[in-house]
Amino acid sequence: MFTVLYMFDILCYVIDNLLNYALWGYLMKGITTEVQLYETDSRFPYKSFTNYMMSTQNHWHTEIEFIYLLENYMDAYINGTYYKLSPRDIMFASSGDIHGILYSNNKRFVIQFELEILEGKFLDHSQIRKIRKILSSREKVSPNWPPDAKREIEEIILALKKADENCDREDIAYRLNILSLLSRLIYICCEKLPENADQSVKSQTLQSKRVLAKLEEVFGFVRDNYWKDIRLEDAAKQLGYSPNHFTKVWKKYTGLNFHTYLNGYRISCAMSLLSDTNLSISEIGYKVGFQSLKTFNRVFKSVTQTTPSEYRRSIEKVKI
Fold first, then answer.
1. What is the model's pTM?
2. Distance between CA atoms of residues 300 and 284, nearest Å
3. Residues 221 and 112 in one domain
């Protein structure tokens, strides 16, 4: 499947699609309308960005995601497994993987893309599904990869980072370069990364629509009610589970107990308010669901290893 001929076919498809896009852009030039007839993102589902000092609560999405740690250390979860990563380490999440990053003072480069970006004349939907299944079975963090595979993937990620820093994202040459790099990236992951049988079972279980839908119900419940006095029983009720059964299911699929997840979400919201508003620390604590300033300070420090006041001062220094 992953042969030189296949890679050449992909490149031909890419060139064909991009030339068609260029022709369409030329034909539409000069037409003014308030209706957006063409959305670039829908035809080129790729994005990259740099995160600094941010946590992301457990979540999932259909995109493939690669995270390259630039500075300091990172505590991450994927499909219930905890990893502590160092500078230049890489983690990737395939479609449907439940993953999250705990707060830490780090800097990381992130790329996200839909596999369908490669779909077309020479790669049909069934082949996309096959690639997705292969990726779900692979080791997700670079400390568990062969050195040569890690080196190649790191080189590709750095090439993507360089391309995104200096190029016009609407330019055809830029898109050809990105698609070529992504094709190579997927090839290496499928062919050179070792399998992880346990990861594969977890990932395939999580990718069932039923499990993802149930987890999303609880994620949404927390997102819409985190400032309230939420109890374990309230979350269990969303799924029609007893508290004991809910605790087992939640722990199995997220790797966290529910209150750890809830407090982590609240602290993430508090960090945004500390950075973006002039509200007092006590106001922020109450606003995100803590009943006392003492509890807010204690939980904030347990999650971030710093106090709310220290965090706000560090953000103010960065903004100067």
1. 0.60
2. 12
3. no
